[in-house]
């Protein structure tokens, strides 16, 4: 059960929102729900054919919405896109960095680690840094960086994905403190486990099915996100129980490690998404 609180302050009607990862899964749902709430949404991803479908849905809900093809791991291209949206609309009020990739195969290859960091860490960092000056000047704006419980409690099957999300969480928390009191808010979203192509794909490839307590669907996570957008808390936890993992690790390190390894079973080298 996801409990949502109404955001006290963030008016979405007429807001300009950019959502990466809009072609699939969580990002697609966030884009849809933001448009339904009245925001003009620009959805970003690489797969043009999926974005065409998404754009039609978004326009039905909010007339000025659109989609753009961009590989966000090319941070120059991503920042140029954000600058273009800012020029066209005069502002970006909400940026949701949901684009992400899971654990690569052939982890022994360092370039695979770089690819994960480029997409899951440097892209959202570049996007955040690009929109912050405008938001700070207007004293209004929200950035949501989609992290993962793998970032705060990694299992054995996520040596590339886990660190990319840990770095993203730390960056976002640090920046959130830096801009506190300015009217601009940064959030780290922890979705729990969601059966999107990434989440379901990881299970198909051998990741054990996560416990019921952390399973969510796109609609639950999106509803929670919209209800919390712009409020005081930096972290938004779709599966609150996952917050206890770092506490258990600090208090009972050996027991914790044995538990994680047992839960991961033979999946030590399989892709992860949670
Ligand atoms: N599902 C879960 O259980 C879970 C749990 C925790 C966190 N998360 C995080 O939630 C976010 C969304 O994941 P999801 O589960 O919704 O997965 P998904 O269905 O596979 O969606 C991933 C999205 O990211 C986009 N993307 C990937 N690389 C990109 C790139 N270089 N440039 C632009 N877009 C890119 C994909 O679009 P294109 O392929 O069209 O580019 C797609 O729209 C990710 O950051 C993921 O790490 C997911």
Structure description:
The model is unreliable at 1-7 and 266-270 (pLDDT under 50). Helix 9 crosses helix 10 (253-264). By secondary structure, the protein is an alpha/beta fold. Strands 3-2-1-4-5-6-7 form a seven-stranded parallel sheet, sandwiched between helices. The chain has helices spanning 25-36, 48-61, 75-89, 110-138, 149-152, 161-178, 197-204, 218-228, 244-251, 253-264; strands at residues 16-20, 40-45, 66-69, 94-97, 141-146, 184-190, 235-237. Strand 1 (16-20), helix 1 (25-36) and strand 2 form a beta-alpha-beta unit.
Keywords:
274 residues; alpha/beta; Rossmann fold; seven-stranded parallel beta sheet; 7 strands; 48% helix; disordered N terminus; binds NADP nicotinamide-adenine-dinucleotide phosphate
What order do the helices and strands follow?
Answer: EHEHEHEHEHHEHHEHH
Which CATH class? Alpha Beta
Into how many domains do the coordinates divide? 1
What is the tally of beta strands?
A: 7
> How far do the termini sit from each other?
17 Å
How are the SSEs ordered, and which strands pair?
Layout (H helix, E strand, L loop, with lengths): L15 E5 L4 H12 L3 E6 L2 H14 L4 E4 L5 H15 L4 E4 L12 H29 L2 E6 L2 H4 L8 H18 L5 E7 L6 H8 L13 H11 L6 E3 L6 H8 L1 H12 L10
Parallel strand pairs: 1-2, 1-4, 2-3, 4-5, 5-6, 6-7
The structure holds NADP nicotinamide-adenine-dinucleotide phosphate (NAP).
Task: Offer a quick outline of the entry.
With 274 residues, this protein is α/β, with parallel strands linked by helices.
């Amino acid at each position: 059960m996801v409990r949502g609180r109404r955001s006290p302050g963030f008016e979405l009607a007429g807001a300009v929102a950019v959502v990466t990862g809009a072609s699939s899964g969580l990002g697609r749902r966030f884009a849809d729900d933001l448009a339904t709430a009245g925001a003009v949404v620009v959805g970003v991803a690489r797969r043009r054919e999926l974005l065409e479908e998404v754009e039609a849905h978004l326009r039905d809900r909010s007339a000025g919405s659109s989609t753009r093809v961009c590989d966000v791991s090319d941070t120059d291209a991503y920042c140029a896109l954000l600058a273009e949206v800012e020029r066209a609309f005069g502002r970006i009020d909400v940026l949701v960095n949901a684009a992400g990739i899971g654990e690569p195969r052939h982890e022994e290859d360092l370039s695979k680690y770089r690819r994960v960091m480029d997409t899951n860490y440097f892209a959202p960092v570049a996007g955040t840094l690009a929109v912050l000056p405008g938001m700070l000047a207007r004293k209004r704006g929200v950035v949501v960086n989609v992290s993962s419980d793998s970032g705060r409690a990694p299992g054995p099957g996520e040596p590339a994905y886990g660190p990319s999300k840990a770095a993203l969480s730390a960056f976002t928390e640090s920046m959130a403190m830096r801009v506190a009191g300015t009217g601009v808010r940064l959030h780290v979203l922890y979705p729990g486990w969601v059966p999107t192509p990434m989440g379901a794909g990881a299970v198909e490839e051998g990741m054990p099915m996560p416990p019921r307590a952390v399973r969510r669907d796109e609609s639950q996570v999106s509803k929670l996100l919209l209800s919390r957008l712009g409020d005081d808390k930096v972290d938004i936890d779709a599966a609150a129980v996952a917050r206890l993992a770092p506490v258990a690790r600090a208090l009972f390190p050996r027991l914790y490690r044995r538990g994680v390894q047992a839960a991961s079973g033979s999946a030590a080298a399989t892709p992860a998404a949670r």
